Amino acid sequence: MAIYHLSVKIGSRANGNSAVASASYRSAEKLHSQTDNKTFDYTRKQAVVYTEIMLPENAPEEYADRETLWNGVEMSEKQANAQLYREFEISLPNECTRDEQIAMTRRFADSLRQEGMCVDIAIHDVKAGQYRTKHRKTTTDNCHAHILCTMRSLDGNGKFLAKRIRRYILDPAGNKIPVLDKKGNQKVERKTGRKLWEREDVATNDWGSKEKVLEWRQRWADIANQYLAEENKIDHRSLEEQAKDWEKELERIENELIQARELDQERGKRINEQLQRLLQRRENALAADRLAGGERATTGADTADRAPDSNDTTAREIADRAVRIQQVLDRREREALEAQRAREEAIRREQELKAERERARKVAEAERIRSQELNRASRSYSR
Question: Do 241 and 227 share a structural domain?
């Protein structure tokens, strides 16, 4: 049973993050930070099985070097609380081979590269029992990918663009809209006398939107499912959203049960199989969520993408309803068998009654014939 886990985190100086230090730790390499004048050496780190840097077409060739890339990112940011990188942490299915895990990770990373990001891939494979921290160790194999991405887009010359720009707001005719005072006159700056126009702050890319994160989550599920068997496929949605589909499926099965007053064995078997598949999907989703929660608690992974615990209640209610439907189906099958036995018993009794009536008729007929013969004999004697 595959586990779905994809978290998106922002590394910023406000949280004490360093792009060079993070890249050094993920890749298990020795990197020097020019902004901090520090060297980060994680070459002794184990479990790093694959690393790669993917660059968009307009990126400088020297960014293929990990140290050059992330030092360039650090130097492009001037603010003390600047956001430096976006990190994807993805759980890789244990059901897949190492080549398949690498292939699906590269496909997802390449889709980010095509959006204009510089992408740094590192795949870690921690086996069960290996210590992840000083006090904790994993209980299952934990193969996962860290994908570090740049926050800024690149211009045609390979230079990092500003994250946001201010531009004039235009009317339908394409003219700038003036900033007006209470009297309806256009405002001007006191010092320069420059006229003021309405402007807006616009992001240079849509990577920070909530809709984009949802798109990335679904994209990873679609890619991973191409490598997984039907029973192991993952779902990027929360348990609450999955429960809505379970609800619709259960309603459909309920309607079939209501409409089918007398279920034949073949149809009853088909509906029962549908119900069992639905129950199995629910169990797989809940088990995967519980297991993913345990892995995140063990590895210290971000849990921002997990569905709230209240979703488990919704899913549990759906499961209880499915169990009740199963009980209804079983009861109706028992009732159908009992009705069949009752019909057979009624037929048997009716046949016995017919046989008894036939015997009684024959006895009565024999008695009538005997009585007639006695009457004739009596009349003959009296003469």
Answer: no
